[in-house]
Amino acid sequence: MRASPAQQAIHLVLLGPPGCGKSTIAPPLAGRHHLLIIATGQQLRAEVERGTALGRAAAPYLEGGELVPDDLINQLMRDQLGALAPSQGLLLDGYPRTVWQARALDELLADVGRALDAVIDLELAPEETLRRLSGRRICEHAGEPFPLHIDDHEAVARCHALGGSIVQRDDDQPEVVRQRLEVYHHETEPLIAFYRERGLLRPVDASGSPAEVTRRVENMLSYR
Ligand code: AMP
After folding, report:
1. Which of 62, 68, 141, 156 is 20 to 30 A from 49, alpha carbon to alpha carbon?
2. Mean pLDDT across the chain, nearest whole number?
3. Quick one: CA dihedral 165, 19, 130, 181, positive or negative?
């Protein structure tokens, strides 16, 4: 029997501490596997910038490096999943972040006839996580903004050549970074055991360049 497009579509979670590279590797993976990216952090920042009701409610949590309340996140997810095309898979970046959210996700996916296929756990040593976060910047220019590390001279030059400016996310300030890492440790790390018990966890070494990490993830997906 031939599988329907929805059955072939894959549904993945990118898990890992802030700065492990989730949002950097998401676009190439999504492009190759026809996945809808849902990046809750990016969407919340956009809502804050637009000054919507959701943005106003979420702003204090983002500023303090705290998690936005589950009911707001749940609504955001429900709206997005409703827009998933039948042939499209899913790549979740920054969600779920708590065991409560992981259980809610199972229900949200079941409601649209989907289920998770794998949770990619991007493993990175704490020192490297800190190094990446403290040097993380965004190049804002006329086109799509792109992330860069302040020590990456080539990327910095590319940004300048585009006439762009290099900015730092407000929540990448050192005191907020510390809080986000704490929150990750207490609220999100328990998801590693949660998904391991369900046989869905796929650890991937997140050190090295984005191209290397993407290749490791692709390798893992081909043996799934
Ligand atoms: P990120 O861009 O994934 O690092 O997320 C930035 C910020 O958005 C986090 O520090 C939280 O304040 C908020 N956020 C993003 N995703 C979630 C989520 N799934 N649950 C609660 N808060 C979130």
Report:
1. 156
2. 92
3. positive
- Is the CB–ligand 1 distance for residue 41 below 6 Å? yes
Nearest ligand 1 atom to alpha carbon 95: 19
Q: How confident is the model at residue 40 (pLDDT cuts 50, 70, 90)?
A: very high
68 CA to centre of ligand 1 in angstroms: 7
CB of 97 sitting under 6 A from ligand 1: yes
What letter represents residue 84's amino acid? L
Does residue 33 register a pLDDT over 80?
A: yes
3-state SS of 106-169 is HHHHHHCCCCCCEEEEEECCHHHHHHHHHHEEEEECCCCCEEEECCCHHHHHHHHHCCCEEECC
Judge whether 169 counts as a catalytic residue.
yes
Kindly state the tokens that stand for 72: 């707001």
Q: Is 216 a catalytic residue?
A: no
Please give the structure tokens belonging to residue 45: 């920042």
Catalytic residue, chosen from 158, 169, 215, 216, is 169
Rounded CA separation 217/93 (Å): 14
Looking at per-residue confidence, does 67 or 1 come out higher? 67
For residues 124 and 122, what is the distance between their CA atoms, to the nearest angstrom?
7
Q: What is the pTM of this model?
A: 0.90
